[in-house]
Amino acid sequence: MKKIFIFIFSLVYMASCVSKKEYQAVKSKNYAQENQLKENRATINQLGTEVSTLRSQNELYKEQIEDLRNTNKSLLDRVSDLSDVSKAGMETLKSQNTFIQSLTQKIQQKDSVAMVLVNNIKKSLDDVNDKDINVKVIKGVVFISLSDNLLFRSGQTELLPDARRILAKVSKIIKDNPDLEVLVEGHTDNQPISTNCIEDNWDLSVLRATEVVRYFQKEFSVVPARMTAGGRSEYVPKAKNDSAQGRSVNRRTEIILTPKLDEFYELLQDKEAQEKE
Question: Is 133 left (phi over 0), alpha (psi -120 to 50) or beta?
Answer without folding.
Answer: beta
